[in-house]
Write a structure and sequence with these properties.
heterodimer, A: alpha/beta, Ubiquitin-like (UB roll), Alpha-Beta Plaits, Fe-only Hydrogenase (Larger Subunit), Chain L, domain 3, four-stranded parallel beta sheet, 19 strands, B: Glutaredoxin, 7 helices, about 45% helix, binds iron/sulfur cluster, binds FE2/S2 (inorganic) cluster
Chain lengths: ~575, ~150
């Protein structure tokens, strides 16, 4: 049923069941929100979004209050504005005055709100929060002092990720967000995905920073400093740099990284191609030799830890392939080191990732050779921007360059790893060729593309019907795995990405991008795939070269030693 | 069979609404909610332990550490408050280096804050293992603790 409601003395259309906020948003009337989460049940907790009901004289939380016929609302009356301002002042009263030292300085919703409401003096003085920093995690830093209890991280962790390792604990003015028994995040079931950081309005959740180690290495003449960047990076940085979303900065990124002082610039899309060579071989091997099926991809470290904790019975299903980051790391400190006459410890290997969980992955025991980590430090997309600024790189005035070769050339199959469905598509292309000896006529597999949380289809490879599923968001993964536990058996190969939409929506990406901007990233990846000519990993000349000169065969002895690993059940309190 | 299995058996339908009653039963039985018991309840009701801990800390009645050998209840009722129980509690917490609701590492002492324990005439009053100490002050509080410590060392 449609009716009109009166907003700021103007009649606006409204539908039964909508909230006041829905009507406001549709009509371009901006009311600030904090605890509100799109598509989630509103709690009305923060009261930031209040509007005045002229009939009753009451302040209503617009994010949770349903529209009623003939209601009359003021969104910016004196009372409303004062009330919002008071809420902000209360939030500031116990907040540390740390802006200048804060990672989120100039990208902070609390700053924006106080700015918008002209908070210019301290009217309310409260006791400052005192809660220790939680530095225990390899990926995530929690600073409860900066937490304003909006609850958005709790929602992301439970509803999107299906992890639920943090929640509100204690009550009243002692309320904080923490883990069970308020222990360090590293002892919890946290999978390091960083989706909590993506929704945090303040600096209460940030990534563990590796700047110091990287700068030290760059300043050390005895170190050869190499860098690789993930497939999604070049199409995800635009918002950070003030460019149009979805711009591919590939060439200028190469040039910028050299300007910073990295000695070699490699592309993880190359090692994504390598992953596909190994993974498709593994899939065929499993199918032919009665191996464990469905095979599930393992290039997402958030998903791997999730499986170790919640679904250890599925660990035999995980592909033994290391992720592209770790394959590249292993090749750099073995083959590349030998070619360059370097000892592994003379190399400092940095990776730029859209992902906070990659920081955790890089320090895993399984990702070392004789005690030396394959990857030494990880920068997120956000951190890379800060690094570029530190080194004074002007991304608008720079000549594009190519990556170093070998280990720099990629097919477009490796590039689409950045989007949910990309690994699946790339693997099918190569598996099809290996099984039939022919290339696919149509490389695109639209059924596995897009932002939908779960995609399923069957692929016919020479009469062999392969059921495939692509899931992103670990809550969606949970549902699929439960179905398989309960007997679903028409799926042979599954791609799992922890983050919504895949790595382009990763926990290390720009904070505050819109759905449209994320879509632009995905569109760009598939556009690259559509326009370039080498679309399959097995035709990447540098991949062919690497097998000829060093690795031998996929799943061969060297691959086994360098590129594959196994995971074990992880005991954490769930 | 684990220690809390008999309690869980009383709730055969394992519905989530049983969370609080189950926690209460466990606390009545063992005096506190151990990590293990919370993990087990979580598995039984299919609730993440962060949620259980969140709910449990919302209510003041739940403890997460066993009582100390000497369990000290500090009355924070009105009469005791008027006569300075806040200072007594503060001193006690400082002395034992724990907060109300916690136990010392050696397991000797634990502190609990309670509402009026019906001995207002003796305010401010504390009770150690059920035994009342009347008209305590910061100084006498310290003496009581020191005496108990000595007794233990002897
Ligand atoms: S979280 Fe925001 S308001 Fe708080 S210190 Fe950081 S920048 Fe400042
Ligand atoms: S990193 Fe992911 S799993 Fe860990 S607390 Fe944040 S949202 Fe939850
Ligand atoms: S945004 Fe509406 S109450 Fe928080
Ligand atoms: S107020 Fe302390 S005993 Fe009554």
């Amino acid at each position: 049923m449609d009716f009109t409601i009166n907003i700021n003395n103007k009649a606006l259309e409204a539908k039964q069941g909508e909230t006041i906020l829905d009507v406001l948003t549709r009509n371009g009337i901006r009311v600030p929100t904090l605890c509100h989460i799109k598509d989630a049940f509103p709690t009305g907790a923060c009261r930031m979004c209040v509007v005045e009901d002229e009939k009753s004289g009451k302040l209503l939380t617009s994010c949770s209050y349903p529209v009623e016929a003939d209601m009359s609302i003021q969104t910016h009356s004196k009372r409303v504005v004062e009330s919002r301002k008071t809420i902000i002042e209360l939030l500031l009263s116990n907040h540390p005055d740390d802006c200048l030292y804060c990672v989120r300085n100039k990208n902070c919703e609390l700053q924006d709100l106080s700015e918008e409401h002209h908070v210019r003096e301290r009217r309310i003085r409260g006791k400052k929060n005192t809660e220790p920093l939680d530095l225990s995690s390899a990926s995530i830093v929690r600073d409860p002092e900066k937490c304003i209890l909006c609850g958005r991280c709790v929602h992301a962790c439970e509803e999107v990720m299906g992890v639920a390792c943090i929640d509100f604990i204690h009550r009243g003015n002692k309320s904080i967000i923490g883990t069970a028994f308020n222990q360090g995040l590293n002892t919890s079931s946290c999978v390091n995905c960083g989706q909590c950081i993506m929704v945090c309005p303040t600096g209460a959740l940030t990534e563990k920073n590796h700047f110091a180690q990287i700068q030290e290495a760059l300043n050390n003449p005895a170190k050869r400093v190499v860098v690789q960047y993930a497939p999604s990076i070049s199409v995800s940085m635009a918002e950070e740099l003030g460019m149009e979303a979805g711009t591919d900065i590939n060439g200028i990124l190469n040039a910028a990284l050299r300007k910073i002082g990295f000695d070699h610039v490699f592309d993880s899309s190359f090692s994504a191609d390598l992953t596909i060579m190994e993974e498709s071989a593994e899939l065929i091997d499993r199918v032919n030799n009665n191996g464990v099926l469905p095979m599930i991809t393992s290039c997402c470290p958030g998903w791997v830890k999730f499986a170790e904790e919640f679904y250890p019975d599925f660990l035999p299903n995980l592909s033994s392939c290391k992720s592209p980051q770790q394959m590249m790391g292993a090749i750099i400190k073995s083959h590349f080191a030998a070619e360059e006459n370097l000892k592994p410890e003379e190399i400092f290997s940095v990776s730029i990732m859209p992902c906070t969980a990659k920081k955790f992955e890089a320090q895993r025991e399984e990702m070392t050779q004789e005690g030396i980590s394959d990857v030494d430090a990880v920068l997120t997309t956000r951190e890379l921007t800060k690094f570029l600024k530190l080194y004074g790189i002007d991304m608008f005035n720079i000549r594009p360059e190519l990556t170093d070769s070998p280990l720099g050339f990629r097919s477009t199959a490796g590039k689409i790893f950045g989007a949910s469905g990309g690994v699946m598509e790339a693997a099918i292309r190569t598996a099809y060729y290996k099984i039939t000896g022919k290339e696919l006529v149509e490389f695109q597999i639209p059924a596995v593309r897009g932002f939908i949380g779960r995609k399923e289809t069957t692929i016919n490879i020479d009469g062999l019907e392969v059921g495939v599923a692509v899931v992103n968001g670990l809550a969606n993964t949970r549902k699929l795995l439960e179905e398989i536990r309960n007997g679903k058996n028409d799926i042979h190969f599954i791609e799992v990405m922890a983050c919504p939409g895949g790595c382009i929506g990763g926990g290390g990406q720009h904070i505050g991008s819109s759905d449209e901007q994320l879509k632009a990233r995905m569109k760009k990846l598939y556009q690259i795939d559509a326009t370039e000519s080498i679309k399959v990993s097995h035709k990447n000349p540098e991949i062919i070269g690497l097998y000829e000169n060093f690795l031998g065969e996929p799943l061969g002895h060297k691959s086994h030693k360098l590129l594959h690993t196994h995971y074990h059940a992880r005991k954490v309190m769930l | 069979m684990t220690a809390i299995q008999p309690i869980l058996n009383k709730y055969p339908d394992n519905g989530r609404e049983n969370l609080i009653p189950i926690l209460q039963d466990i606390q009545n039985e063992s005096g506190y909610l151990s990590k293990d018991s919370i993990v087990e309840v979580g598995r039984f009701l299919d609730i993440p332990i962060s949620k259980i801990f969140g709910v449990a800390t919302f209510y003041n009645q739940f403890r997460f550490e066993p009582f100390g050998k000497y369990h000290i209840q500090v009355c924070r009722g009105t009469a005791c408050h008027v006569l300075g129980s806040a200072t007594v509690l503060q001193e006690l917490e400082k002395n034992l280096k724990i907060k109300a609701g916690q136990s010392t590492r050696d397991g000797l002492f634990s502190i609990e804050v309670v509402a009026c324990i019906g001995a207002c005439g003796l305010a401010p009053v504390i009770s150690i293992n059920g035994e009342f100490h009347a008209k305590v002050t910061a100084v006498s509080m310290k003496q009581i603790i020191d005496d108990l410590k000595k007794e233990e060392e002897a």
